[in-house]
């Protein structure tokens, strides 16, 4: 078993090294389309609408990158991936970037040879149970059956939590959020565990959402964000600073409503550098001066993207919490544009 795992990791790392050498920026431009890996379907984060058009918080990052590089936020091929397939898809070059609920960890960064370009959602693992189960704490789950997505950090976190609390559980392995929802509602498991944001997104789709409770315990740190392959630094910079442009725009008061006015020039030098009316930041990225304008226009600044897809006024109903700007007591923070 250990040998097969090591070989699998080595294979992924080898694929990543080979694919990175190709130069993804040039590939995307020549193709005229961004291949973006997303989840198989998590409402609010990444899922196709009734017309088959992908929408969501993670989808918005893909569209922003496509807008920055190709001047077209719709020039994206969305490729659904599972916990098992996502890393191979990225390492092999099938996708140019991965923008799904993927946690930044040491081994994924160092051993699998991926580069996390930032964090677009600070999360933590939680538990959802039927209200009828009569449970108010995760520490009351001894002996429970638990639906758990394979190939994820949640598997390891779950094992650690139950071991620390001297409890036992029976795992019910699933591969996608849709399968987890089906199994959970069918009673195949007592508990569904994943990132707390994913639980909120899943519960929002239930016919009787009030019959299900997300327990208070958060048992892990899950910094989620887009990633690319190691070694392709030019492409990594494009994706990293596109994400940063959305975060910085919110802090600096640049919105989809006022961006055209602000792009003409303001009294704030950082706004001017971000939007290209001063400096040569676009040139440094190998893009033109208005790359960040296009990224922001694609779906709005970070706050607009959050509010539209997963915020308190949506069925998902998530508060900003840790994902508020640093100026509002959260962890969200973009490096300076200078």
Strand order of the largest sheet: 10-9-11-8-12
Largest sheet: 5 strands, mixed
Q: Which structural category fits the helices and strands?
A: alpha/beta
Mean pLDDT: 92
| Share in helix | 40-55%
Gross morphology:
globular
Number of strands: 14
Unreliable spans? 1-7
* Topology pattern, helix = H, strand = E: HHEEEHEHEHEEEEHEHEHEEEHHHHHH
Question: What is the first-to-last residue Cα distance?
Answer: 49 Å
Radius of gyration: 20 Å
Number of helices: 14
Proportion of beta-strand residues = 15-25%
Q: What does this molecule look like?
A:
By secondary structure, the chain is of the alpha/beta class. The chain is built from 14 helices and 14 strands. The chain has helices at 2-20, 24-31, 57-70, 86-92, 106-110, 153-164, 177-185, 196-203, 233-252, 259-263, 269-275, 281-285, 291-299, 302-309, and strands at 34-39, 47-48, 54-55, 76-81, 97-98, 114-116, 121-123, 125-130, 144-149, 169-174, 191-195, 212-214, 222-224, 227-229. Strand 9, helix 6 and strand 10 form a beta-alpha-beta unit. It is globular and about 60 Å long. The N and C termini lie far apart (49 Å).
Q: What's the helix and strand layout?
A:
Elements: H1 2-20, H2 24-31, E1 34-39, E2 47-48, E3 54-55, H3 57-70, E4 76-81, H4 86-92, E5 97-98, H5 106-110, E6 114-116, E7 121-123, E8 125-130, E9 144-149, H6 153-164, E10 169-174, H7 177-185, E11 191-195, H8 196-203, E12 212-214, E13 222-224, E14 227-229, H9 233-252, H10 259-263, H11 269-275, H12 281-285, H13 291-299, H14 302-309
Parallel strand pairs: 1-4, 1-5, 9-10, 9-11
Antiparallel strand pairs: 2-3, 6-14, 7-13, 8-11, 8-12
Helix pairs in contact: 1-4, 3-9, 3-13, 9-13
